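Take a look at this chain, tokens included, and explain the fold to me:
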Amino acid sequence: MKKTTIKNRQFNCATEESKQGNFGHTKRMKKMKLMIAAILIALSVLAVSLVGCYSPAPPPIPEEGANIVIIIGTDEFELITHQRYVFGAIRELVEREDLDFEYSYTRGSGAFIDVLGDLENGYGGAWLLFYSSLDANEYPQWSDPWTYEKGGTTFWSASLGISSMPVIDGVTYLFALVSF
């Protein structure tokens, strides 16, 4: 049987940097620091984007259904529904009340209402906007600080579209044409 031996060899790589005590580490250290910084930045961006996408689960629908009010312009409708999101509740109401309803749907944004009842998006330069009685201070995940006053009640701009906005028992949802 043949034995293989490996001899430990030392090389004399005396360069100008090694004579000064750097041993070529400065370039490698700079590259390493840049790589670590790039990784930390990438992780930070990922963490911020995931936090921005977080929306807590809506509260469960009561067994008997959620009792909500939907206001469309000047018309007010009470609805008991088992739908989890406002889009489903609107579709249920449209069928029950035989309302005009036109919308477009995109995978990224969900449903976008063009016509709801007598309201038409873009009519007279006004936008069809969606509000709820959820206070932005109490429910920041579902409400924005912009308000709309109707009949002495403050409604808060919805921070989500109707496809993502949860149905919550006792809440009023308002659809109105608004000009800026």
